[in-house]
Each structure stands twice: as structure tokens, then as C-alpha cells.
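Before a colleague's protein record goes any further, I have to sign it off. Would you go through it and say whether the fold makes sense for this chain? Take the sequence as given and treat only the C-alpha cells as open to question. The record follows directly below this note.
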Amino acid sequence: LPYIRNTFFWHRLRVLKYHVHQSSEDQDSIFYLSMKVQPNISCYAEIEADNGSTARGLAQCLTDDRNSRICKVKAVLPSQQTSGWLKVYAGPKIIPSNNAAVQQDVVCKTHFSLAMCVRVTSEKQCSPFDFVKLYADYNEFYVQEPQCYQLYPLQTYNFCIRGARSDYKAIHHKLAIKSPNGKLYKLMYQPQDQTYEGTVTVSVA
């Protein structure tokens, strides 16, 4: 069972389900956890291995069909580690600065307080993996794919981003993927699924 701290009760978190053991037969090395959270609460997740090394996880929130705010957590053990602790931090959603000259904040654990931790174990050593980084923004989106941080040259990626709130059924935004060289790739809005989709092939330079 998870170990919980005061933050868990302060923000009225509720664990729905989790998968914290990886067998040698599992196809991937990802640990999963989902929670019900309050409308104004966001989370951050990481795994701290027994040797003290850490790996940043991915914690994203969206509104389900029952109008409940659900936080879905994915995390992996640091490279070559087989056990550790999945730590989940929680707190009020980050309000970005109104100053256009200020760079957007990357969501990190310093924005929140530790709410819970749960033991994770794996029967196989994990390969290195970095999840996509999330930034503070007034418009909240759920990155369905790709969820990896690094994209590789000459590879084709299907991007799918979902509006995280139910009111995106009536309101949508223009979204685009910006490459390192500044080129923009527009994402097409799919109103039936509330998603923004597009296919991008990464160039060599």
C-alpha cells in the first residue's frame, strides 16, 4: 500500500489504481498510477531508486466523462535499477507569468509538496527513458503521443494532444509543433475526439 502524507489529505486525493511491479514478461518497464484530484490541483511524479538516483515521471490531468479530474502517472526506474520508490507530489496548478519576456516554467517537484510514495520493483533492469516535459500554461492539454522527450532524426512521429477539460468541446485553440529550426507544423483539430493530431518527420538538421 502507498505511504501517504498530509498533502494527500489536504488536497483530497484518491488513488484509483496502480501497477507497481514489473515481471520479466512485461512488454515495457513503465509503472502506472491514476488518482482522482480536485479541479485546481496538479501533480508531479518521479522515481527514486534505492541507490539514490532519480528519474522524472509524467503526471498529466484530464477531465473524464463523469466530469471528474483524473491524474494519470507514468514512471520508470533509473537506468540499470530494479527497485525504488514512486513519489507523487501535489499542489495548486501553476499560474504562468503574464510577462511575455519571462520564459515558461517547466513543471517540477519544487512547485508542489510530497503527497505519497509507493514501493516499485522490477524483475529486469530498465533502459534509460525520458518523458516529455510539461510547462505551466493557462490552457491545459494532455499529451497522448509521443510521450518521450527525445525525438530522433529521420523518424516519423504521430502527434496527438487532447484538451484536458470538458469545455474544450465548445472551445478549441490553434496548435502547432515547432521544430528546433523554427519551422511550424500545424496540428488538425478533431472535434469528435477533442484532439489535435499531426504527423511530423524529424529532419537531420
Notes: The chain has one helix and 16 strands. Helices lie at 6-10. The CA atoms of residues 51 and 81 lie 8 Å apart. The chain has a mean pLDDT of 87.
